[in-house]
Amino acid sequence: MPHVLQVDFNLQGPFGNEMAEAFSDLAKSINEEEGFIWKIWTESPETNEAGGIYIFETKETAEKYFKMHAKRLAGFGITDVNTKIFAINSKLTEITKGPVK
């Protein structure tokens, strides 16, 4: 069953095109993670926050990815990370045109 991994944290930038340029290699590497389906990158320059909404094949692959990602963020000096993992109700998501089956 697919699961959502929701992650957010304080970030002083970069944002927008600068963020896209700075993190494009990271984005490409995420595609190779076990169980990864897709990610929406989130950012709010007004509140200095960033993060993402990820979809993984299972709760276990979402948890495994977040454990690794938390260590990577700590390497960037980001240690106050908010995270939640949710199961996806695929039947209702399909009705509302969510890209998960």
Automatic annotation (TrEMBL):
It comes from the Bacteria. Gene3D superfamilies: 3.30.70.100. Pfam families: ydhR. SUPFAM superfamilies: Dimeric alpha+beta barrel. This is Monooxygenase. It comes from Virgibacillus natechei.
